[in-house]
Specification:
Layout lengths: L11 H11 L3 H21 L7 H33 L4 H5 L5 H37 L11 H14 L1 H13 L4 H16 L22 H28 L4
Length: 250
């Protein structure tokens, strides 16, 4: 990154961040979280006595992702991305480079959002693979009904968009504090309250519960959570970029 010229191409920081992630444990995390859901679905399906519809397996996997694995994955990923600079104390060097500071933070945000998007797609693909493999092992458990790819992809896509506010908050905290403890405390606390109060009516306004509200039967809950998660998420993310860019010392 020190070799960046004075006229740095617009996407150069993004390419550098992507290379950093490629050398970190981000790839392991991106594979591990969806894999755990797929493994759970695989063995749970093998325990069955009679076939169940595709919808049950796919919706259950999406629920596990939204309630627990997505928040914890975002917590770990944002802490990892921030620690790549906090650990070696390289912020002073990065912020001295001849390019707008906000681009440094925007590149990190883009990488986090990109990895979470890939993980969401992996949940869909790996769950389908797990159910297909389990049906091959025990043909009598072949799932019934049609596999509605567009519906399940749309559901996970909405969960991703509704999670933007949670992602923005986690990234802001992780980049703001040199210690990883505040980011972990926020992520673990948010996930805890999301799990123990999943059915709470107020959960539609809680960032960590917004993704799981995409499974709500009431249309207003889904629309409210999606609108707040995406809209406020964009505002908070922009606010984080502005705030972090203006700070002299992290």
């Amino acid at each position: 990154m020190s070799a960046l010229p004075s006229r740095t191409p617009l996407f150069a920081p993004l390419f550098v961040e992507a290379r950093k992630l490629n050398r970190s444990l981000a790839a392991v995390l991106a594979v591990a979280a969806p894999s755990l859901i797929a493994i759970f679905v695989f063995f749970n399906m093998l325990r069955g006595k009679a076939p169940a519809p595709w919808e049950m397996w796919m919706i259950n996997a999406a629920a596990i992702w939204a309630i627990f694995m997505l928040p914890m994955s975002v917590t770990a990923l944002t802490a990892l991305v921030a620690h790549m600079e906090h650990g070696p104390r390289s912020w002073d060097h990065l912020r001295a480079l001849p390019l707008p500071r906000w681009r440094l933070y925007a590149a990190k945000a883009a990488c986090v959002l990109g990895v979470v998007a890939l993980m969401s797609a992996a949940v869909l693909a790996m769950t389908w693979s797990a159910v297909t493999l389990a049906a091959a092992v025990k043909p009598q458990l072949e799932p019934t009904g049609a596999f509605e790819l567009a519906r399940y992809a749309s559901l996970l896509g909405k969960m991703y968009l509704a999670a933007l506010l949670m992602i923005a908050i986690q990234l802001w905290v992780a980049l703001r504090f040199a210690s990883f403890v505040p980011a972990l405390a926020v992520g673990i606390g948010g996930t805890f309250f999301s799990v123990v109060a999943t059915s709470a009516k107020q959960g539609v306004f809680f960032p960590w519960q917004m993704p799981v509200n995409m499974l709500a039967t009431e249309a207003w809950r889904m629309e409210t959570a999606l609108g707040l998660g995406l809209g406020l998420g964009a505002v908070v993310l922009i606010g984080a970029l502005v705030h972090l860019s203006r700070r002299e010392v992290l």
